[in-house]
């Protein structure tokens, strides 16, 4: 097999051709290698491969040709030296965090996190003797004040789930570098097209590939990207022995999703911006948060840090939880679902779904109120979506 050599490609080209490996048959589409293991020409060849003296695949839990293509294509898009693909976004988050610390270490995390990420920080890590502190991610003084002599890792989402706060990644990375700590950034909401955490100083980037990268509701997946030394020294053995690997079929599906990622994200972002502007003028809406609007609390930072807005809009429906539920139940095109980044527009009530396990005080502290909803804008005609929203708000009110 021969691998394609990366040229000075723009993202759209790299997402179609990057990392491609062709078999002797010269297939056009990436080949799908549905195999658990691989055979060797001799016992000596098997020994050499296990020793790392001879290149090649050993077992699909470790690496697989189709998964390898997905990892290399993501590296080209992200500007990373190496990557490991995982079975889900949470597998990527958990592996990236847990392989970086040990009992007695201290982790500082922004408090505005997806519910399962908060669980890893607040429940799982302390069970194994890892100290953790949650801070307001938008307040650099809190990051600074949380540092202890044993602080080894910073973790954040930006924009955050679901209230779309934006954290100054470069400033957090500067603090981390000052104490020889690492910064892990969950970049799902921005996508690698709208924000490049590694360029801003982050050390590790994670994605739920289930979201925009697949983008069509077909499969689960995740990926961790960093420099080769960090992956070799920290992630390699953890990944090899704990087995959070991505299936080859899902990797192939994600490769197909990457081919259309720029087209989908561009259209979804444009539509989300129009919907956010429309909602901001609607009498039934109390608050709209969208990274592409000038009234976003971190608008100046967004202009420096991001290349575009978002495919998501967060807003508060008047009437609290009852008002939000009435609105959601009247929608026709937009469907109720906790997923995001899909070709179909999806909406959820975070307080009773993705963040339901947080206390009310914890939800309020990150801006999740009774009427808060999170809209993931799809590829439908934006005028149809606005009409659907207006009709539902009218009936609900």
Task: Walk me through this protein's architecture.
The protein has a seven-stranded mixed sheet with strand order 3-9-8-7-6-4-5, with helices on both faces. About 40% of the residues lie in helices and about 15% in strands. By secondary structure, the chain is of the alpha/beta class. The chain has two domains: about 10-260, Aspartate Aminotransferase, domain 2, CATH 3.40.640.10; about 260-395, Aspartate Aminotransferase, domain 1 (Alpha-Beta Complex), CATH 3.90.1150.10. α3 packs parallel to α11 (about 250-260). Mean pLDDT is about 95; it is low at about 1-5.
Short description:
This protein is 42% helix and 16% strand.
Give the arrangement of secondary structure elements.
Layout: E1 2-3, H1 11-17, E2 21-22, H2 43-51, H3 65-78, E3 82-86, H4 89-98, E4 106-110, H5 115-127, E5 131-135, H6 140-146, E6 151-157, H7 169-178, E7 182-186, H8 191-194, E8 204-208, H9 210-214, E9 222-226, H10 228-242, H11 248-259, H12 261-280, E10 285-289, H13 299-305, E11 312-317, H14 320-330, E12 335-336, E13 346-348, H15 360-365, E14 372-376, H16 382-396
Parallel strand pairs: 4-5, 4-6, 6-7, 7-8, 12-13
Antiparallel strand pairs: 1-2, 3-9, 8-9, 10-11, 11-14, 13-14
- Strand content bin: 15-25%
CATH architecture verdict of the largest domain: 3-Layer(aba) Sandwich
Stated plainly, the CATH topology of the largest domain is called: Aspartate Aminotransferase, domain 2
Radius of gyration from the alpha-carbon trace, in angstroms: 22 Å
The CATH H-level homologous superfamily of the largest domain: Type I PLP-dependent aspartate aminotransferase-like (Major domain)
Shape: globular
Adjacency order of strands in the biggest sheet? 3-9-8-7-6-4-5
Number of strands: 14
In sequence order, what are the helices and strands, one letter per element? EHEHHEHEHEHEHEHEHEHHHEHEHEEHEH
- The overall number of domains is 2
**What fraction, in percent, of the residue positions are helical?**
40-55%
């Amino acid at each position: 097999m021969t691998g394609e050599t990366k040229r000075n490609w723009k993202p759209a080209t790299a997402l179609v051709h990057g990392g491609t490996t062709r078999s002797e048959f010269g297939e056009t589409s990436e080949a799908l290698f549905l195999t658990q293991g691989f055979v060797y020409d001799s016992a000596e060849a098997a020994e050499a491969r296990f020793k790392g003296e001879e290149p090649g695949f050993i077992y699909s839990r470790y690496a697989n040709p189709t998964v390898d293509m997905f990892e290399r294509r993501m590296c080209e898009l992200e500007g990373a030296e190496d990557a490991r693909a995982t079975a889900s976004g949470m597998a990527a988050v958990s592996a990236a965090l847990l392989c970086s610390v040990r009992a007695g270490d201290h982790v500082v995390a922004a408090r505005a996190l997806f519910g399962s990420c908060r669980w890893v920080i607040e429940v799982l890590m302390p069970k194994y003797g890892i100290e953790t502190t949650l801070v307001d991610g938008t307040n650099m003084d809190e990051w600074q004040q949380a540092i202890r002599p044993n602080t080894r890792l910073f973790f954040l989402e930006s924009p955050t789930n679901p209230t779309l706060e934006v954290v100054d990644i470069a400033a957090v990375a500067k603090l981390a570098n000052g104490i020889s700590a690492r910064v892990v950034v969950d970049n799902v909401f921005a996508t690698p097209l709208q924000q490049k955490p590694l360029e801003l100083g982050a050390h590790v980037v994670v994605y739920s590939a289930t979201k925009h990268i697949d983008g069509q509701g077909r499969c689960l997946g995740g990926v961790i990207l960093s420099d080769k030394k960090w992956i070799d020294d920290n992630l390699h053995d953890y990944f090899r022995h704990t087995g959070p690997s991505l299936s080859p079929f899902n990797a192939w599906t994600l490769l197909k999703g990457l081919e259309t990622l720029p087209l989908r994200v561009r259209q979804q972002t444009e539509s989300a911006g129009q919907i956010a502007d429309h909602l901001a003028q609607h009498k039934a809406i109390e608050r709209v948060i969208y990274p592409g609007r000038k009234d976003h609390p971190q608008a100046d930072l967004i202009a420096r840090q991001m290349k575009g807005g978002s495919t998501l809009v967060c807003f508060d429906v008047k009437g609290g939880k009852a008002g939000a539920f009435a609105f959601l139940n009247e929608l026709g095109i937009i469907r109720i679902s906790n997923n995001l980044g899909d070709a179909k527009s999806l909406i959820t009530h975070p307080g009773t779904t993705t963040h339901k396990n947080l206390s009310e005080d914890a939800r309020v502290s990150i801006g999740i109120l009774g009427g808060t909803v999170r809209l993931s804008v799809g590829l439908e005609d934006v005028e149809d979506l606005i009409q659907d929203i207006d009709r539902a708000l009218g009936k609900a009110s």
